[in-house]
Amino acid sequence: MTDLVFENVRIKYGSGNSAHEVVRGVSLIVPAGRTVGLVGESGSGKSTLARAAVGLHEPYAGRILIDGIDIVKAQGTAAALRRDIQMVFQDANSCLNPRMSVGASIEEALAVRGKFARRDRAQRRIEVANLLELVELDPARSRDLPMQLSGGQRQRVAIARALAAEPRVLLADEITSALDVSVQGTVLNLLMRVQRSLNLTVLFISHNLAVVRQLCDEVAVMKDGEVVEAGTGTHVIDDPQHPYTRELIRAIPRIGIPLFDEGANS
Ligand SMILES: Nc1ncnc2c1ncn2[C@@H]1O[C@H](COP(=O)(O)OP(=O)(O)O)[C@@H](O)[C@H]1O
Ligand SMILES: [Mg+2]
User: Fold this and answer.
1) Could you tell me the pLDDT band of residue 82, with boundaries at 50, 70 and 90?
2) Helix axes 151-164 and 102-110, enclosed angle (nearest 10)
3) Is residue 213 within 6 Å of ligand 1 at its C-beta?
């Protein structure tokens, strides 16, 4: 079980006069085996913060720790630990090669772990089938190209690909925002089931507070690169203290998405 800790993280884009600080000293703990929701309006720095945890941005100050080890510099032990964090993005196409079959994409991600690299092809195929089953897709789909799948199915493949690296921490960045409302619930249900069965530590980024309230043990609210409020859903969403959180809550649509619909694969 693995904690993910952000300690006073600062990230800027650009340099010199054009430098723009978009994460301005964020401290956040995602406790081992828990799901923390990160909410806030578009542009508040949520994605930038998460991307830094998988090495896509380098903070110029602060630390990002897994089990107490700073992964920003990512050398030696820290570099190995980095594989323990995987990210799923809003757009599944960003991680799937359009010319590569679904199975080949997942197999490629398996190779990250040495034990699969050494195994033979047949064993990797079995592991790919297991991963597809884990995300509730028919293993026969492994021969399909991404374009032959629906948006919801592609996002399941993206989740399977992330899980292929056997992460202990999963960052989910608006993973249902690009999907039809009718399939958002099934993908979120899948994520929750996987989180529980693998005991993953999850940072769940969303602008939908209603979903976060249902899914997450704790919630952090980000505004202009800072966390303005954090705590349990009961505290933050049911009894918000910060005016910005109140504003976000007023914007929750009355009719939620069908979260607990255990419908067919989508
Ligand atoms: N690659 C980039 N280069 C420069 N500015 C960026 C880049 N990515 C995001 N930004 C800016 O950083 C700020 C935070 O963006 P982002 O982290 O994507 O926020 P969020 O995920 O909360 O919508 C925004 O003002 C955005 O325009
Ligand atoms: Mg974002």
Assistant:
1) confident
2) 20
3) no
Ligand 1 in contact with 90 (CB < 6 A)?
A: no
Is the Cβ–Cβ distance between 182 and 161 less than 8 Å? no
Find out whether the beta carbon of 44 lies less than 6 Å from any atom of ligand 1.
yes
Question: Among 20, 22, 47, which is best to mutate for testing ligand 1, by the most ligand atoms less than 8 A from CB?
Answer: 22
Ligand 1 near 45 CB (within 6 A): yes
* Cβ–Cβ under 8 Å, residues 65 and 4: yes
- 252 with 209: CB under 8 angstroms? yes
pLDDT of 244 > 50? The answer is: yes
Query: Rounded mean pLDDT of the chain?
Result: 89
> Which ligand is closest to the CA of 227, given by its number?
1
CA angle 196, 253, 47 (to 5 degrees): 55
Domains and CATH numbers, the chain: 1-84+172-233+243-260 (3.40.50.300), 98-166 (no CATH)
Q: For ligand 1, say whether the CB of 48 is within 6 Å of any of its atoms.
A: yes
Q: Give the pLDDT confidence of 178-211 residue by residue, as tens digits.
A: 999 889 999 999 999 999 999 999 999 998 888 8
Residue entry with tokens 């949520």:
46
Ligand 1 atom 3: the closest Cα is on which residue?
A: 13
